[in-house]
Amino acid sequence: MTDRVFNVAKDFSAYPGGRYRKDGPHSGEELRDILVTLLRDVSNSGDRLVIMLDGTMGYGASFLEEAFGGLVRECGYSKDQLQELMVLRADNSVYVPYKELAGRYILEAAEPANA
Length: 115
Prior knowledge:
Blueprint: E1 3-7, H1 8-12, H2 28-45, E2 48-52, H3 61-73, H4 79-85, E3 86-89, H5 96-108
Parallel strand pairs: 1-2, 2-3
């Protein structure tokens, strides 16, 4: 198993935006769509996606909920699938609370009724 690193600050934006695309650029909804593609790629290859959260100007709670909780709520991933395919990482202690919050949103997300 190989780790594929996606650095939010470098590969997406150092300035994450709001929850939805209508809220402006670099939304949680936009990141979620990118993550779905990346998760599909690692699922097919047997790799794991490491999401590096360090280096941004911070994250809004609605951004994190939409990007990460939305993977369960909107995209049909189970919490177990995400735990197997994806790792949230924060090396800088400033970003650890964001990592914990994103993880909590995944755990608390309501899975679709047809899951």
